[in-house]
């Protein structure tokens, strides 16, 4: 380069240089190349010496000018490149994601150069490219060929196949976590029965039951009594029956499937009301009954467990590892009355013979030949009753949870967990097949992304759970085994169970901390039923996207992670409406029926769900600061304050004050706001600082697990999402008695409830504040 510069300066100085062009040959191409020829001219006699000095000075000035120009260009280019790289590194914090941008395989995602950094937009494009609809559908068909309950040869074969497939993906780690759990199955020697009996108990007529239908964890034995129709078996339904003066004690409840109440809750509430047994049936008003048009036949039954809890009910709060020696303990959520599913035909036979008061408005189902009467008596000869007998048997079963992980590069000890139930009583296309197919496709996709340059900041954990049909037993046993450290490790959990029940509406059941993630995801994903439109654009036609966000519910695959383990969790459902797919928990839950409902769009709906979960997991594994909303519980606490203010006079008349809870609410709100502000004003590129903030963020759900109740007696300790006297909902219900029924208000109980909630909230505020010298505690 210096030779070229010198030649250029010499030519410019007028030293007799001449430019010419030569011809260069190379690679079969001839091209003209300019060059400079220099001729030396001797100085003539008599010439002024000053001429030579002037020329020399001119050469030096021009040389200096060229050097300065080159140095200036070099500094400018260096500054530009440094500024560009710095801006790209921070753009994930400030750039607008934009609306849906279609991406097909033709767009391509070329592997980056060795050591290059991939940014969020490139990772999203890579995720979209590698997801495959046909793989989701083929895996679903393979998984849902036949029934595969826990402990069966079919279930064990499927477990081995999934483990082998995950190992073939080249994950960083794959392993199996095993537990011995006690499950309940129908007896092989005695079939569950139902009889009409006379006043003396003599059997008059047997009513035949489906031999495969049963309620796992039902109490066993016989129960005899009159029959009372209890609608959906909700708490309000039982209150309405009491208000009407219907005698419930000693009778058998007949309840409809649905009403946003699980089988376990129906049985629990019936037991509290004084019933001695429960029969549960699918009413045509809630579940279509024509199998030719995607409905159940009238003799079909829906089976579901009735343990008001999760995990092995004989080791509540403890893991069922085969090396543990915990004493035998029974869960408080096990019912003490028998429960049995029945068909619409059996329900029609019973309810059509009832006598007594007419039903309240809105209770009328669509059973043929049935006028809505509550019971408990029968028409015809007096004294007739119903006898039910349940002979289910308990059995220890080895459960195998299968794990595979992609290790993070910066925070490998922090996990984003994606899981799905594997077992099923029947073919289980929706119950277990959909989730398993999505799990395997996401594992394959993320593995391919790693091979092509993706380096997740945090670890990704893919889990196939066993024992899901019995109340998320496999998942809960794993939670129990690692309960003391999960709040330090688990960033979030995504459940893929029953993700496809239709292809129109999206529902998101989630911890509030994860709610904001869904907006960014649905903006990027195309709606499976409306080509070219994002899910967000369709959701906004019905109002805010927050309308699709709903609280976690007891029987969901995500509930235990938040309410028991203190881990933020989410579960997605694509559905039509409550009647869309009635075959879940039946032996009719097949791929063919699901594909018929979706009119051939099974692959596209599966891809949409996988992309939604993948995008949210991608963001959690990529961002320096975890995108979780720590301020979300401030509004919930504020609602309690508002409710307490409405009862100020009644509380003061009893010598009660809500000042402590007001103070705790204020402390938590300030702590959440201060943390949010501190993050916004900090250098999030500082790895040490980012980890400190993330540690505080990811423990928020854990802070709301009450430390003042027993995990054995009250496993769902979360004060906002849990179940029990320590929860906000229980406190609010009790408080409402001050106006509706003051005589039922228990002052001592209310004091205890208020204290439990207040100190849990204050503890969360203290923990969120960080170091002890930052705690704003006026007490």
Automatic annotation (TrEMBL):
One of its GO terms (molecular function) is transferrin receptor activity. It is a single-pass type II membrane protein. The chain crosses the membrane at residues 65-87. CDD domains: M28_TfR, PA_TfR. Residues 657-768 form the Transferrin receptor-like dimerisation domain. InterPro entries: PA_dom_sf (IPR046450), PA_domain (IPR003137), Peptidase_M28 (IPR007484), Peptidase_M28B (IPR039373), TFR-like_dimer_dom (IPR007365), TFR-like_dimer_dom_sf (IPR036757), TfR1/2_PA (IPR037324). Its main location: membrane. Residues 224-289 form the PA domain. GO terms for cellular component: external side of plasma membrane; melanosome. GO terms for biological process: endocytic iron import into cell; transferrin transport. It is found in: Cell membrane; Melanosome. Residues 401-581 form the Peptidase M28 domain. Residues 1-26 are annotated as: Disordered. Keywords: Cell membrane, Disulfide bond, Endocytosis, Glycoprotein, Lipoprotein, Membrane, Palmitate, Phosphoprotein, Receptor, Signal-anchor, Transmembrane, Transmembrane helix. Belongs to the peptidase M28 family. M28B subfamily. PANTHER family: N-ACETYLATED-ALPHA-LINKED ACIDIC DIPEPTIDASE (PTHR10404), TRANSFERRIN RECEPTOR PROTEIN 2 (PTHR10404:SF33). This is Transferrin receptor protein 1.
């Amino acid at each position: 380069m210096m030779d070229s510069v010198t030649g250029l300066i010499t030519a410019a100085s007028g030293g007799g240089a001449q430019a010419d062009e030569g011809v260069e040959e190379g690679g079969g191409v001839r091209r003209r190349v300019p060059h400079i020829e220099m001729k030396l001219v001797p100085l003539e006699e008599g010439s002024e010496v000053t001429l030579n000095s002037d020329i020399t000075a001119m050469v030096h000035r021009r040389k200096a000018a060229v050097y300065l120009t080159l140095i200036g260009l070099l500094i400018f280019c260096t500054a530009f490149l440094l500024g560009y790289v710095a801006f790209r590194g921070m753009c994930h914090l400030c750039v607008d994601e934009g609306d849906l941008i279609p991406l097909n395989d033709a767009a391509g995602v070329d592997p980056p150069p060795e050591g290059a950094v991939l940014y969020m937009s490139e990772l999203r494009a890579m995720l979209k490219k590698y997801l495959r609809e046909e793989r989701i559908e083929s895996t679903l068909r393979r998984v849902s060929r036949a029934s595969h309950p826990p402990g069966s040869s079919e279930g064990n074969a499927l477990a081995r196949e999934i483990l082998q497939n995950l190992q073939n993906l080249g994950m960083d780690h794959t392993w199996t976590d095993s537990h011995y759990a006690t499950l309940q199955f129908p007896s092989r020697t005695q079939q569950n029965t139902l009889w009409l009996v006379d006043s003396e108990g003599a059997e008059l007529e047997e009513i035949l039951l489906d031999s495969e239908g049963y309620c796992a964890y039902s109490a066993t034995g016989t129960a005899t009594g009159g029959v009372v129709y209890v609608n959906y078996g909700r708490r309000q339904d039982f209150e309405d029956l009491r208000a009407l003066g219907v005698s419930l004690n000693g009778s058998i409840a007949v309840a409809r499937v649905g009403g946003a109440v699980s089988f376990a809750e129906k049985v629990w509430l019936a037991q509290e009301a004084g019933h001695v047994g429960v029969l549960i049936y699918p009413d045509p008003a809630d579940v279509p009954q024509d199998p030719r048009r995607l409905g159940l036949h009238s003799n079909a039954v829906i089976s579901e467990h009735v343990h008001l809890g999760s995990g092995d009910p004989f080791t509540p709060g403890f893991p069922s590892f085969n090396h543990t020696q915990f004493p035998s303990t029974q869960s408080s959520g096990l019912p003490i009355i028998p429960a049995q599913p029945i068909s619409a035909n059996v329900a029609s036979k019973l309810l059509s013979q009832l006598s007594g008061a007419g039903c309240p408005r809105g209770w009328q189902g669509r059973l043929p030949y049935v006028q809505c009467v509550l019971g408990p008596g029968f028409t015809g000869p007096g004294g007739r009753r119903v006898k039910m007998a349940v002979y289910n048997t308990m059995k220890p079963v080895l459960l195998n949870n299968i794990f595979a992980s992609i290790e993070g590069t910066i925070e490998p000890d922090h996990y984003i967990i994606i899981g799905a139930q594997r077992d099923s009583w029947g073919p289980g296309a929706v119950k277990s097949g959909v989730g398993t197919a999505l799990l395997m496709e996401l594992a394959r996709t993320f593995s391919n992304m790693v091979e092509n340059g993706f380096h997740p900041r945090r670890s990704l954990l893919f889990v196939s759970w066993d024992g899901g049909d019995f109340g998320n037993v496999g998942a809960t046993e794993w939670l129990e085994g690692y309960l003391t450290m999960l709040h330090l490790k688990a960033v979030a959990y995504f459940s893929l169970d029953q993700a496809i029940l239709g292809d129109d509406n999206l529902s998101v059941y989630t911890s509030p901390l994860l709610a904001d993630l869904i907006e960014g995801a649905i903006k990027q994903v195309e709606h499976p039923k409306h080509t070219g439109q994002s899910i967000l654009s369709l959701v906004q036609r019905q109002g805010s996207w927050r309308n699709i966000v709903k609280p976690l519910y007891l029987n969901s695959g995500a509930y235990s992670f938040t309410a028991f383990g203190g881990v933020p969790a989410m579960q997605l459902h694509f559905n039509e409406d409550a009647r869309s797919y009635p075959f879940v928990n039946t032996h009719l839950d097949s791929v063919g029926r699901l594909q018929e409902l979706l009119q051939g769009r099974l692959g596209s709906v599966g891809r949409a769900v996988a992309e939604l979960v993948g995008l949210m997991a991608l963001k959690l594994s990529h961002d320096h600061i975890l995108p979780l909303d720590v301020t979300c519980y401030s509004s919930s606490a504020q609602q309690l304050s508002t409710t307490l203010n409405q009862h100020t006079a009644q509380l003061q008349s009893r010598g009660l004050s809500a000042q402590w809870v007001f103070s705790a609410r204020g402390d938590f709100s300030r702590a959440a706001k201060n943390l949010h502000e501190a993050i916004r004003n900090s250098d999030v590129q500082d790895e040490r600082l980012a980890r400190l903030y993330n540690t505080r963020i990811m423990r928020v759900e854990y802070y709301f697990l009450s430390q003042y109740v027993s995990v054995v007696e009250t496993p769902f300790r979360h004060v906002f999402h849990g179940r029990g006297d320590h929860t906000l909902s229980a406190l609010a219900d009790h408080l409402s008695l001050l106006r509706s029924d003051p005589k039922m208000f228990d002052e001592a109980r209310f004091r205890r409830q208020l204290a439990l909630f207040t100190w849990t909230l204050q503890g969360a505020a203290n923990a969120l504040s960080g170091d002890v010298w930052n705690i704003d505690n006026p007490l």
